């Protein structure tokens, strides 16, 4: 590869990274606003999250096209190839997180129309942890920081446990107070979507570790537990 082509290739990699960072930031804001819409019963904010989802989808297409161009026109060395492959997978996970933000916003919109008689205390806690996982996974990508992403992996089980508890307690609440059925069902949906956000953030963290260290940690429980 000539020097001019090499410079162009490096520039294209930087543009790809910048675009993913922008998409990640937009996805973080979507999760923040969707949860805020739920907790503050703001239907207007929920609608805004739903309306902005096509912008995240547009980023996904842009990144996919950039990856295809890089692979088709260049011959990346191992380190760059790992970055490109990780970028492609992270792109997909961010788009799916955006979809879950929309799901939460839709539940928030419905919840805002119902009497304010039910909110599970663990929902805000789940939201904080899942949001922190997403933020750290994106920061790990920006900094090429595998240790930061290992911290993300450790939080996944916490979210899983909280989701199980929230769903169980909300189902019990429905049995005791059937009048709260609609509110409880929306909160169950929110809990499950937050659990999926945490799962997808974990996937991003795993890709960053692969990118940084050429180590596959998916399904390797010892590695994920920091052992």
Walkthrough of the structure:
With 227 residues, the protein is mostly helical. The chain has a single domain (3-224), classed as Up-down Bundle (Methane Monooxygenase Hydroxylase, Chain G, domain 1). 85% of the residues lie in helices and 0% in strands. It has helices at 3-39, 43-73, 78-111, 122-143, 146-176, 181-213, 221-224. The longest helix is centred in the N-terminal third of the chain and has 37 residues, at 3-39. It is elongated and about 70 Å long. It starts with a helix and ends with a helix. Mean pLDDT is 90; it is low at 219-227.
Write the layout of secondary structure elements.
Layout: H1 3-39, H2 43-73, H3 78-111, H4 122-143, H5 146-176, H6 181-213, H7 221-224
Helix pairs in contact: 1-2, 1-3, 1-4, 2-3, 3-6, 4-5, 4-6, 5-6
């Amino acid at each position: 590869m000539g020097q001019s082509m090499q410079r162009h290739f490096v520039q294209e990699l930087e543009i790809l990274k910048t675009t993913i960072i922008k998409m990640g930031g937009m996805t973080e804001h979507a999760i923040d606003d969707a949860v805020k819409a739920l907790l503050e019963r703001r239907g207007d904010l929920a609608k805004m999250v739903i309306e902005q989802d096509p912008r995240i989808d547009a980023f996904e297409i842009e990144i996919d096209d950039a990856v295809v161009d890089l692979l088709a026109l260049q011959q990346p060395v191992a380190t760059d190839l790992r970055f490109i492959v990780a970028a492609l997978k992270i792109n997909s996970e961010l788009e799916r997180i955006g979809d879950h933000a929309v799901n939460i916003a839709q539940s928030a919109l419905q919840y805002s129309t119902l009497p304010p008689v039910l909110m599970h205390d663990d929902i805000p806690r789940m939201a904080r942890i899942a949001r922190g996982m997403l933020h750290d996974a994106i920061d790990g990508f920006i900094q090429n920081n595998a240790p930061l992403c290992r911290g993300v992996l450790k939080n996944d089980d916490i979210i899983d446990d909280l989701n199980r508890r929230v769903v169980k307690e909300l189902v019990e609440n429905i049995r005791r107070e059937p009048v709260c059925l609609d509110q409880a069902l929306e909160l169950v949906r929110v809990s499950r979507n937050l659990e999926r956000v945490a799962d997808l953030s974990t996937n991003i963290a795993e890709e960053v570790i692969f990118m940084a260290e050429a180590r596959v940690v998916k399904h390797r429980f010892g590695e994920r537990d920091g052992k």
